[in-house]
Design goal:
mainly alpha; Tetracycline Repressor, domain 2; DNA-binding; homodimer
DNA sequence: GATTATGTTGACCGATACGGTCAGCGGAGG
DNA sequence: CCTCCGCTGACCGTATCGGTCAACATAATC
């Protein structure tokens, strides 16, 4: 790819990246035309080909960018640090939301790219994903203390249940085209409050 | 549309419908070619045009079929009947799962069609949706008794939380291409059991 | 003001894919 | 043998695709 892309004003770089995420998140690789990305970025198709040699290069660049900034933001946001269950879930979601504010379609793009079947790119995606997993694996949650929670509860189910509800929340907002991240954030925080009240031992006693 | 479609063996009708749901659920209306649907259905493009005058007619037929069979199955499954919270949630999900067994992509198709922006079909979709809503609206849940649940719980939050987790569960399974409905059903039942234990008053006392 | 370097585009190319048509194949029934 | 009918491959005109290129605009350099 053309190194001049990086000397572009940051605003313009992000415009192009956002456009790429947007278009590639809506259709498969093969059905996402360069012309559409250029139009969404507000530049000409020629200029897009000036920065990226071909479609594949742009696609893999976007995938790499997606993975890179996700890890960066996660580290910056302290999502890998050792906290209690709720606050680590909270910091993880905060990072996700901050990322979506900057790049609204990054989440859907990541999922689509990961499951992309087109032989022109699929193997590269899988290989790259493997490297990222190898580097950042093993960052686990601190062992949680069962005594913090209401007695008899299935902690694994509780965790999975919270995860699923978070995903469902995200997915529901993604469905409507115009995603209101402020509303999402507020709803997510309400969810966490609700879980604390229901699942935590001491909080329950306050009722 | 050609009435001969209905005199086709049911198996073949379903093949075509399934293929339509599949292709239209993966891309937008404009980017879903008839040739791909025909190939997925195992018939020639010509034959597809023999049963449906054009792409739009097929699309609207699929949308109508989707709405019709959903309502039919919901009624047959007793999802509109008056039950307690958990069992009505359960029967609703059972219907959804049974539908997905027969037409794996019907759910994603419905969502995509509802949010479809293409002017060639969007207005027809919205109009048709309005009619369905007008007919089947107002079927509400029975008033639930707060005394059944643990004291002090926010019932509205509880309901929304359960809804979100169900959606998140569905969405997660949909992401992996090959969806294992049996596993989904099992996991959903586990979720309901978990909720009962955590949210219901008498169940909690059993612990 | 002339010249050069840099950023950007519209027009264009060959190839492919699209929605839709149609003549005709092949098998079953008369 | 003929006729009907389900079904297809080949085809048509057009649109769109990935990618190229000459040229325009703008600003810096001399």
């Amino acid at each position: 790819m053309n190194p001049k892309f990086y000397s572009l004003p940051e605003e313009k770089q992000q415009q192009i990246i956002r456009a790429g995420f947007r278009v590639f998140s809506q259709s498969s690789y093969r059905k996402s035309p360069m012309s559409e990305i250029a139009a969404a970025a507000g530049i000409s198709k020629s200029l897009l080909f000036h920065y990226f040699q071909n479609k594949k290069e742009l696609y893999l660049f976007l995938w790499d960018t997606c993975a890179r900034i996700t890890v960066e933001e996660m580290e910056k946001g302290g999502a890998y640090d050792q906290h209690d269950l709720f606050s680590s879930m909270d910091s993880g979601m905060q990072v996700k939301l901050r990322l979506m504010r900057k790049y609204p379609d990054i989440g859907v793009f990541a999922v689509r790219a990961f499951y992309e079947k087109d032989p022109e790119v699929s193997s590269d995606i899988q290989k790259s994903m493997g490297q990222y997993l190898a580097v950042h694996a093993g960052k686990k949650l601190k062992e949680i203390d069962p005594n913090d929670f209401i007695p008899g509860i299935d902690l694994e189910m509780m965790y999975r249940e919270m995860y699923l509800a978070s995903e469902g929340c995200l997915w529901e907002y993604l469905q409507r085209g115009s995603l209101d991240i402020d509303a999402m954030q507020k709803e997510f925080e309400e969810l966490v409050e609700f879980w604390k009240k229901v699942y935590l031992r001491r909080e329950r006693e306050d009722i």
